[in-house]
Task: structure prediction
Amino acid sequence: MAQKGFKRKLTAILSADVIGYSRLMRDDEDATVRDLAAHRVLATVIIQQYDGRVVDSPGDNILAEFASVVDAVNGAIKIQQEISRRNSSIPHDRRMVFRIGINLGDVIGEDERIYGDGVNIAARVEGLAGAGGIAISGTVYEHIKDKLSLGYHYLGEQNVKNIPEPVCVYRLLTDPEDSGKMIDAVEPDAGKWRRAITASAAIIVLVAGAFSIWIFFLRSENEVATVAKTALPLPDNPSIAVLPFQNLSGDPEQDYFSDGLTEDLITDLSKISGLFVIARNSSSVYKGKSIKIAQVGRELGVQYVLEGSVRKADDRVRITAQLVDTTTQRHLWAHRYDRELKDIFMLQDDVTQKIVAALAVKLTADEQKRLLHRYTDNMEAYDLYLQGLEYFNRLTKESNIQARQVLNKAIDLDPDFAAAYALLGWVHSREWTQGWSPGPQPLERAFELAHKAIVLDETLPAGYTILGEIYLHKRQHARAIAAQEKAIALSPNDAEGIASLAGILTWSGRPQETVELIKKAMRLNPTYPTEYLWNLGHAYYLMGRYEKAIEVLGRARDRNPDYIPVQAYLSASYIELGREADARAAAAEFKRLSPRTPITEWRHRLPYKDQMITERFLVNLRKAGM
Result:
């Protein structure tokens, strides 16, 4: 019997939010609150005109429902048109730009609220809409494709957070000349035929040896990492992904411990040259999801998966771990550990050695030494280190401060804790690169901490990676390259280290080498961040391959419209091709994102080895109207 007060219904759900809302609030809270209220009134009026109703409006979000899918889409188009018209008379840095997602799905109604996967999918689809855009699910497309004169950009099947099955997503093309246009893919068939065709295509891709990745990594304010549903060829070396270990303590606040243990295992395995190890932020997208091992193998292109659970209570820890072949579903190894917390490093070493033995990987003498590690004898310091790691991975100014505080406490408890010094060095380096602290002090402090970490443990890759980045900013390019190459020698599977070396080589005038390195990093880290695309586009720009640079930088812009360097190099690439109108459009977007930054400041910020490249770049920006 249905519960009183609840009922199910099929409805069209519209979800909208503001691009760059945090920045707007940071610049002027009062004006942003007023502008958001005015835009909500505008959206509400239009939604009502199309027979819809606003269900909720938390934060910068608007959630609405419609009885008709056609009305929902027409209403969304009208909202974006009116907002665009209003923005034409508003300074770029104060424009409020929305993205909208629409889904048709089954929901649960309670009083005036709606819940369920139908709502969740609308929110996830919205994240793929882009600035000023509208994205729709496949169910919406099926209902409107013959009813509305629109074009579509097919984004493929997207795995979205907390939804077990992939969702087909399309971006709407609303210009009249785009009517009937379909970009990037033909209309997918439904049901079993579609799955059969997809499977056949995957086989063809494998036979041909092709390699394709298309993954959207959204801005950190509303982060939803996704994995493209694509078959990646298996590497020559045994390949493995370590899935996030489940926290079974019953306390969500203990997630940092299970996440930290997972990252430590990935770090240890990444030091083995005979393995191919997927990066942490690609495997972490599966956290909390109900997944199939074979699915993980296909999406990440690995043959083996390590999964497990952690239960930490007082001074004891219970860990289960199992190694599974994704192609046969066979368990190669499984074990349960029930140890005192002080034995955590011995436990990690044992898991690593068991994996090495199960996969018949031969270790070099240096690798054997590096894998027998002990971070610290002080378990309280180690616990603080894991908390600092969790704060650091949140990628915000506030969490960076929290990371610095707990890591300083960890070092107070154990002054010889090399890994804590290295992570604290990253915290200070990010403080400088993100502009959260003016002056050179954070960079100098990061430099000191990296050296301290290396003195305490010369086999710690992170210390050399930090030095490489700092040497680059100091324009000591040879030292930067040497430090980063040392880090990669110590951890051959570190995607971030490989991407960092790629960037250093670009600034050093060796962009041809960057391309292959970035592609290698992308393969190790399929849910790669926007920086990887930016690095690749930057390399193509310096190689004079401007069309290719525009293509890659355009993909980076679609992922993160607020990524400032992308707009600048898009503008410069357009100028090189004589496409002045496009260059000015990109320059206008750059000025919207960074209205107070004179381009002369770039002369001091860009660490090119050849200053003639800097000057040519600045000339291009001026030609674009900056």
In short: The longest strand covers residues 6-19.
